[in-house]
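User: Some background: our group keeps a shared notebook of sequences we're curious about, and every so often someone picks one and asks for a predicted structure to add to the entry. Today it's my turn. The entry only has the sequence so far, pasted here. Could you supply the structure so I can complete it?
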Amino acid sequence: MKYIWEKHDWPEFRVDTSKIQGVLYQYALETGALSGGLAQLPEEIQQEAMIDTMVVEALKTSIIEGESFNPEDVRSSILNQLGFTLSSTSIKDPRSIGIAQLMISVRESFNSDIDEQQLFSWHKMIMITSSRITDLEVGKWRTGQAPMQIVSGPIGNEKIHFEAPPSKSIPLEMKRFIKWFNETHPTRGTVKMQGPVRAAIAHLYFETIHPFSDGNGRIGRALSEKALSQDLQRPALLSLSVAINKNRKQYYQSLSHASLGDMDITPWIIYFVNTTYAAQLMAKKRINFIFQKVRFWNKYESQINERQKKVLKRLFQAGVDGFEGGISSQKYMRIAGCSKATATRDLSDLLKKGCINTLPGGGRSTQYELAIGTIVGQEHLPRVGEEVPLFVSKIKKEKD
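Assistant: Of course. Here's the predicted structure to add to the notebook entry:
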């Protein structure tokens, strides 16, 4: 069976958009509501929402490729590079600096056209600190003579999932891809299509060419987010990789099926557009979480002691999914560095004040969660004219 790039009509993609009009409509409603709600929030909260989006995207796009980073290293790298810290915070893992650079570049240059140099620059960002640097061609198209294959399984019994075009054809293929991407720009381009559809095609198109020796997945997802941002005319406040990572198997299966199909890529478009919509819903939950966090500290910060603040900040660091297993007196002792009696007394006080709720189950070790847990994702962002919190945590000072 021929790969899609070997077909005579490559890359003349065909899409039946009638099958995705419903989800495109819902996506448009969600992005519109989110934009309107964010506009009513103080600039500091908008900044925090964008930083949180970059952190989770950096973490998840790396995890998809089998790389893990310390969240605090990534967050500190982003804050350092944006100038939101009074002095640069020490970074333990230098790889986090590169992925942070990519996240910032994608958003700062979201409306510009792409060219070879920008793609080379992105590749250097994510590969320059790789442990495999001596084996890779960094900041340039791959030139190796061996076939670029995506395989799995033990040596000697590998299964080939996909083979990319030969390296000698990469310059021409990428010249054509770059031309297509720029010509489909939503405001400057001559070819018009819905943003999520363009993002889906861009990802499949780029991944099929596989122009680099490594790092193609991360750059391909960055291109999709750039396409979505251009459609919105602002940096997209969503993380595609969070949604993709929920079911990586489906992601790779969808890519594989599309790479072996014909130019009708409707099944891939259906998958990717629905994933984009899911990413938008997840983004709304994260931004609501940030909004609720500000409200929480506005209400309780002056009522609690330093130990309680330390533990609550650790709970907030867990994000919208919550602290795994909740917080118990034993966990409180470890985080706060206090005795069991003090932990029990502090937790009882937090429960009485309404800062935490008791998780179901009980037993010998009671578990607690933040009191905002039941409304995150259900409460709307503020509407026009709705009062917003007077207290805003300063990003320059807060690293949690």
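Suggested note for the entry: The radius of gyration is 23 Å. Confidence is low (pLDDT under 50) at residues 374-380, 382-400.
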